Structure formats: structure tokens, C-alpha cells
Amino acid sequence: MEFETVIGLEVHVQLSTASKIFCSSSAAFGGAPNEFIDPVTLGLPGALPVVNRKCIDFAIMMGLALHCEIRRFNRFARKHYFYPDLPKGYQISQFDEPICERGNVDVILNDVKRSIGITRIHMEEDAGKNIHDSRTSSSLIDLNRAGVGLLEIVSEPDIRSPSEAAAYLRVIRQLVRYLGVGDGNMEEGSLRCDANVSLRPTGSTKFGTRTEIKNLNSFKFVERALEYEIARQTAVLNSGNEVVQETLLFDSATGATKTLRSKEQAADYRYLPDPDLPPLVVEESWVAAVKERMPKLPHELNHRYVTELGLSLYDAGVLTAEREISEYFETVLATCGNAKSACNWVTSELFGHLNKASKTILESPVSAMALGSLIKMVQSGELNGKMAKAVFEEMYETGNSPEAIVLARGLKTINDDSIIEKAVRDVIDGNPEQVASYRGGKESLAGFFVGQVMKATKGAANPQRVNELVLAALKG
Amino acid sequence: MTNSSHHSPKSAVLTPSMLSIADSLRRGEFSCQELCRKLLADVEKSKSLNAFLECDPARVLAEAENVDRELKGASKNATDKPLLGVPIGVKDMILTKGIKTTAASKILQNFIPPYDATVIEKLKGAGALVFGKTNLDEFAMGASNEYSAFGVVRNPWNHEMVPGGSSGGSAAVVAAGLCPAALGTDTGGSIRQPAAFTSTVGLKPTYGRVSRYGVVAFASSLDQVGVFTRNVADCAAISQVLFGKDERDATSVDNPVPDLSAELGRDIKGLRVGIPKEYFIAGLDAQVKEAVQAALSILEKQGAKLVEISLPHTELAVATYYIIAPAEASSNLARYDGVRYGTRSAKAGTLEELYSRTRGEGFGLEPKRRILIGSYVLSAGSYDAYYLKAQKCRTLVAKDFTEAFANSCDVIASPTAPTTAFKIGEKSDDPVAMYLNDVFTIPVNLAGLPGISIPCGFSSNRLPIGLQLIGKPFDEAQVLRVASAFESATDWHKQRPPGYQDFGMIGCGRDA
Amino acid sequence: MSQLTRKEIEKLASLSRLNLTEEELVLMTEKLNAIFGYLDVIGSVNVDGVTPMSHVHGAINVLREDVAQPSMPNEELLKIAPDTSGRFIRTPLVIEG
Ligand SMILES: [Mg+2]
Ligand SMILES: [Zn+2]
């Protein structure tokens, strides 16, 4: 039988705030074990949570980016379970009143654009970490991460393949990074993904029994785990059996999923509106203020680059892949005024150098303004292309401005006709045989004369002018 | 007083008030060390009360020495530290940095907090010193102080009787004269009921008036810190220190705090005092009823207008409370798991055993009972029928008060408790009977209102009776005004329990 | 409400991670049923259209600015924790799930 794959993703985004969501302990990554602790983080008796405003702003921002409705009346809820990395015996989360609902996002895969529904986004606190010490058969608890703000983004079961799941996740990650709400780093766990997957006969509208796969901490694992699970479920169904609803754990070492718990073991979380946290009322004005501060989103920039700046779809995609890249590009463009040159310099020259050194654009030794100035010098004819590349080389090595390099190396293009004419005269006078050949019809020798003039002027002459003057002189 | 059957005192014994002690210290009439030495000696003499869980002479005297040094440099009328040198009893539900805080539970029996509750910071800021930590029902769950893991507290008025609860230790130390004031917490009557049982003044402020930061949480939407004192002026003065917004408690409210002492001594002419008819019911002890009615007629004589009001949902209050409070308690007590602090079971091999044995061995019967009730009413199948329904009933109970205040009265007066102090052991096996002792105080917590209990008489067997005054939200000043008017016309508050007459007396400390 | 059985109480106890002795179980079964018998008075109340009260006094949007404050020293945690290893709290092995 032919089956259709039905996938929904739950993505946890760790928020890039200075402090935790319910207390002023640092939310920094790393730190010595149990360094970022306080009475609230430790769940000490008497400690009380107070909401970090920025986490709400971030939730609203993410909701707007995913075209969600923003809930006006919000309450936090306590979700109860016992686990050593959960200090209070409950996680402060949102239950039946999530801050964002009913959104969607476009995902492009193999040039096909599909809209994936967003069920909800809610705010919650992260747990700490249990480190397994098999040597002493004990666990070590580090609570640095406990209480860091999270957004949980739940998609509709609209995803139809593992590669589409990965593409969706990439879009979420791109938005997270554009908005600055998180760093989206899957390796460090600041972006985490669980997947629900089920199969149904192609053409059927009824959902099959689903399983939930936890702990998919890289794009590769998301695809591999889903592929494995789809193959497993296909085999189960083809053999006439039924898929059992359960929670699975992906083992990246074996590439297989294994049962974590069955449906019967599902916990009773005893949700309770948190009495310590007064309700949150998000008025239109709050949403508008957040919208005001929101950066342009990648699909908006993409559209502008293609329609207004005349860049190719491919180039626009490269330039909007990361917020930092588009910001860099925009600055270069603002300085030099030529989109195509700006695009070429950024995507070929700059990226070539950065890639070779495995550096990100944030680590670029050449600032966007400096690159813009360099391009401007080329456009005005102050530098020719060859010199500009040499100057860029030095800018990249030293971080110096193009103006300073040009000045120091005396690299200004020679535009003065009298100087160029003298050089042309010298070359023609010094090469009578070649002149004769040229005049005898071997016009390909023109390049030779231009080359000699450029050499004589140490490459600084305006090449276009040299060309013109050489031809004029040879005509005699 | 009009009613001689209520043991009107022939000669009231003078008791130094908190304000007079602060004043005497400032004037140098005695030193803080002299005062504390006397109190420590009194504590020693009254060990059988079992009112303190911690009262360390070395610590107290070291702190007193610091106070004396500061007193030497302080100006005689210093107001920046109004409580300089005043020894305060602190219910062991409130975290004190470096001083063991147990909530009267084995699960916290060795817990030394690394931080001070906001109310402790405020008291210290006003110059007060933590004299000792007082006994209570475990996690403040109880109305008799019999549910402490560290033994029952005795009522100074009669050692066979309970002092009330859960703040029984704080009530007992103030009644006995071991401290001029003490902090308590009140979730369903835990300050007012023991105040009534011990003839002390006990104020539960409006929910949100006082920070809960650093106070062991029992039921977060009901808990409020308040004070025990021997008179209304002291109550106003210490409340002034405690009231106000705390950035660390999101439920504390930013409303302006008026000068609470300014209202004291103002007359109550024309003030409408609401008398809820539902509070004068079967189960109300005849002598309590008589004393409260006598008290009401005193208020009337002072110019107040008594108006009968109806709080029609009163009968729902106790059941509503015993769903909401355990639900929140089961959640708040989840953190006591033996992982990060507190007692961990020595018999735990696996993680699951660590949890269930630590909690099984660490919690007493009453917390266990409430955890089970709370887990039940929050579990998926019963949430709507119990918890959600109780939250709706809470709205009804609260609305009764809103309407009464909007239409009929300025304050409400009632008995604080339906009976006087009962015998130790009398109700400890019957949770429902115990719960019903809070029938008049619980609605006030559900509605988040301020309430005070003040002494208003004695039963024929010389057990104290309390009058409860309930105010509009954040109108503690009005409550204190009525309380002080009543107090000025009576001398119930000047009476001391037999055997404790000279407790707390030192030098020329003056009358309350 | 129907009576809570011993089995249901055992389930609640396990949900709450409360080890109960046999004696406690018997006692709890009896007392909890007495208590629930009393709590059932709210069962017959009509609360149609009544808003549930989860918070008091209607305060909303009580927030703090995103400013990190210095942490509590690690030693403070080590002092109060029942079992530690280095800078960590130690527990019996946590089985994933
Ligand atoms: Mg989830
Ligand atoms: Zn989550």
C-alpha cells in the first residue's frame, strides 16, 4: 500500500536574554557548573518568580513572524512532574492559554513553496541538566540552564517528508536568528526538536496512529530519525500490524529509535494556573510596539532584493540566509550605491576569503563600510579592478581602510592624460618593430602596447584611457 | 464593660508595649542586652509552652550588643529605625538567613536558609532583631499547632488548651510576654484564630500588601504575612514597616501605604459596621456569641451604626478553601524532594526511592493529606468538578464582600472563631472539625481582604475570645481605626495569662 | 463523589511521590473520604457564567526588566545540598525518560 507521511514538529527555542525568564540569574551559555543560581533557580522555599518582559516581547515577535494571533489574556501554568533537573517539582509553562496561536510559515523545498500551519507558541522555563556519572552510578545536577526562557513552537501536522521537516526547521532557525530571539544553535541545545510522525493510506484524510520522537538535536538527525521511523511504521503497517502510540528516543549512534514510554505511562501533569504570577494582558499597543522594533524578515528582504535591486533569486537567497549577511550587504549597498557590485563583492570576494578561513561574516576583518568605500572607488574610476582586488587583499589582512591603503601605497589610478600620453609615447618609441607589425595589420598587438603602458605606470593608469590613447597613437 | 460575667479585670497588669520598649531603649532606660537577657530568662522559665523552635541566647545577645552600640550613637528621637532593638518572634515559616528555618517539618529540620525573607530585611532595616523562630503547624497546615513535627504548643492561658494555629507559637510568645511582637502567616485564619485564642491582636493584611518573598509557600493565592502584638498601636507601627510593594513578589501590590497610626484614636461616629447574619449560626459557642454581641454594642455606643448584612455564599467557603489550599499546597510542596536541600532519606537507593521515601518520611500526616487532596483535585479527571468549580465558588464568596462593602457597610465585624481554645487532642483526629474552626476567617482569605482579631472578652473558664474586623481591600487603616476605638473603651488587651504577669517586664517599661 | 478506594489513594500517593506506610494508607482512605464527603457541598452549587478566580485583586502585567544580577555563590548551594560532587548536586542515577 502507498502511504502518506504526516509530520508535526515541536521546536524549543532558547531565548537570548541576559537573565532567566522568572529571575535575574544570568542566562548565559556555559559557565562553571551551578554558577548561575539564585533562590528562584534552586527552587528554594519562599522564592518567587517574576516575569522577564523581554521574553514576552520575544514571544510576540516570533508570533508575528509566524503570522499568529496574539492572545490578549494570558496566564502561566504549573506543569508538575518530578525530575532532578526540575527544581520546583513543576515547570512554569503555558497550558490552554498559549500566547500565540493559528499561524503559518512558508517553506520552500525543491522550488516548491508550501505553507505549514503553526498550532501554537508558548513560553516556558528550561530545565537544568543531569550529567550521568556511570563511574559512581550517580547523576550530577547542573542548574545553570534551569529557568532560561524558552519558546515552544508547535506546528500543525502539515509536513509531508523528512526533508520538508528539515527545511521547516531551517526556516524557524533563520527566523529565530533574524529576530534575535535566540541563537538557534542545535549543537549547544539552544534549538531543540521533537517530531510527531504517522502514516496514512495515500488519499485518506484520517490521521494514523502517531509516535513522538524526542531529542533530535541536529538537522541531520531530524531527517535520519524520521526516515528510520517512517520505514519502521511502513513495515509495521505492511505486515498488517498496528502502530503503537508511544514516545521514542532517537539514538544517533545506531540511527534507530527506541521506546521511551508508552501511552499508558503518559503523565498526569496536574496543570494549575500559577498563583505567583498575575495574568499577562497583551494589548494591541504592546503588539504594535514590538512590531515597530522588529527587523525586516528574510522573505521581505528577498522580495525587495529581486524586485527592486534586480538581483537574481539565487543571490537574494544567499544574501538573506542570515540576518548578519543581509545587514552587511545593506551597509555595503548604502555606502557604494550599486547593488550588483555590492552583491558580487560580498558573495564572491568576501565569502571566498571568509570560507577559506572558516569565519562568519561577524568575524570579517573587512567592515561593510570599508568594502562599500572600496567599491565606490572602483566605480568612480579611482581604482581599477585589479588594484581594487589588491587593496581588498590588504584590507582583509590588515583591517585597514581602503583609503589608507591607497594612500600608503600610492595606488591612485592615473587619469591624467598627459602622463598616460607620455608613457604611450615612450612605449611606441621603444618598440618600433611591433609598431610596424601592428600597422601592417597585426591588430592583436594592441594588447601588447596597453600591457607595456600599464607596466610602465605600475598598473596605476586608468586602463580604459590607456586603451584609447594607445589606439590613437598607433593610428599615428 | 457592661457584662460582668465576662471576667472584667479588677486590676490589669501593666504590659510593656512594643512602642514603649523601643522608646525606652532609645532613652537608655535599659539596654537591649538587659532586655534580651530578661526575655531569655523568661523563655527558659516557660519551656513547657514549646513556643520557640529556635531561640539561641548567644546569637540573640550578640545581636543585642550590636544594637546597644548603635543605640549609643543614635539620636533620641530617631525615626529612621523605629524598631531599633525590638526583639521579634518570627514564625518558622519565614526564612531567616543563617538561622534554621524548618516550617515545623522534618523535611526541613536542618535547613539553614542562604537568604532573608523580604519581611525580615524590612524588620532588620527598621532596627528590629530576630529573637527566635516560633513553632507552628507543619507547613502552616492546621488550626491548633498540634500538627508540628516538633511538638504541640501550649496556650499560655491554659496549658491544656491549644493556642490555635497555625501561628500558635507566635501567638503564645506574644501572649506570654516573651516578645512584644511576632510575625505570623495567615492562609485561612492562621493569625486571627490564634490571636483570638490567646487574647492578642492579630492582623492579616490585604493579600498583596506584604511581600511573600522568602516565606515558605503553603497556598500562594491565600498566604499573607501579618503580625501579633499586644495592642493596636503596636500592630499599626510594625505593619507600617512591613507593608509595601516588593519587586521580588509579583503578587505584592503597589498601592500607597497610608500612615497607619494616623487613624488610631479617630472616632467611629457614623461608621457603618456590617454584621453578617450567616456568621451567627449553630455551632457558634454561646459565650463567644455573647462576648461578640457585647463588643458590638460597645462599637454602637461609640457612634458606629450596626447594620445586618448577608454574605450568602459563606457556607461554601470552607469547602472551597479545602480544595484550593490543598491544590496549591500539593504544588508548592513538590519542591521538597531531597535533591537540592533539606532532609534526604537515608534509605534511598534509586531516584524513585529518593523521592518517595524522602517525602514519605519527611512530611507529617497533615501535609500528606493535603498533598493527596490537592493532587486529586488537580488531576485530569477531577479538575473541572473540584478545582475549577472551587475557583468559581471563590468568586462568589469574594463577590459577597464586594457587594456588602459597596452597598451596606464600611467594615464588617464578627467572631474570629466559633469557639474558644479547645483541648489538646480534642480535634486532632477529626480533620473536618478542625477545618470548621476557621469558618469565619477563611472567607476573608478567599476574598483577599484585611482582617484583624482583637481581644473582646473571656469565657467563664477564662479562655480568651476574639472579635474579627474585616475591611475593604487595602483599607487596613479603617480596620485599625475601629480596633483602636474598641480597644480604648475596653481593657481586655491589658490582661495577662496567669503565671506570666512579670514576663517581659523590665525596668521602667511603661504600660501599653 | 464516589468513594476514593485504597487503590486510587495509592495512585495519588505515587503521583505525589509519597511513600505511605500501611497504617497511613488505611488512615488516609478513611479520612480523605470524610473530607471529600464534606467538600462535596460545592457539587450542587450553580456556577453558570461565573468567572473562576485564580488571582486576587486583578493585578496584571507585573514584569521585570531583563537585567542579570550576580549569582549566589556555588558554596551556598554545596552547604545546603544533601549530597554533592565538585560543584554539582548528586543524586542516584537518573534513568532517562
Ligand atoms: Mg510539549
Ligand atoms: Zn516544552
What does this structure look like?
The complex is a heterotrimer of chains A (476), B (512) and C (97). In chain A, the strands form 4 sheets. A 9-stranded mixed β-sheet of chain A has the order 3-7-8-11-1-12-13-14-15. A 3-stranded antiparallel β-sheet of chain A has the order 6-5-16, with no helix packed on it. Chain A is 40% helix and 21% strand. In chain A, α3 (219-238) links the parallel β13 and β14 (246-251). In chain A, α2 (162-179) runs antiparallel to α3 (219-238), α7 runs parallel beside α9 and α12 (417-430) packs across α15. The relative contact order of chain A is 0.09. By secondary structure, chain A is of the alpha+beta class. Chain A has helices at 53-65, 162-179, 219-238, 284-293, 298-307, 313-320, 323-336, 339-356, 368-379, 385-398, 402-409, 417-430, 432-439, 446-456, 463-475, and strands at residues 3-14, 51-52, 69-70, 73-74, 77-80, 90-93, 100-109, 112-125, 129-133, 138-142, 149-155, 191-201, 211-214, 246-251, 256-262, 272-273, 280-281. Chain B is an alpha/beta fold and 512 residues long. Chain B contains 15 helices and 11 strands. The two termini of chain B are 19 Å apart. Chain C has a two-stranded antiparallel ribbon. Chain C is flat and about 55 Å long. The two termini of chain C are 34 Å apart. In chain C, a hairpin with a 2-residue loop joins β2 and β3. Chain C has 3 helices and 3 strands. Chain C is an alpha+beta fold and 97 residues long. The chains are: A alpha+beta (476), B alpha/beta (512), C alpha+beta (97). Chains in contact: A-B, A-C, B-C. At the A-B interface, loops of A face α9 of B. Bound molecules: magnesium ion and zinc ion. Zinc ion binds at residues 12, 124, 152 of chain A.
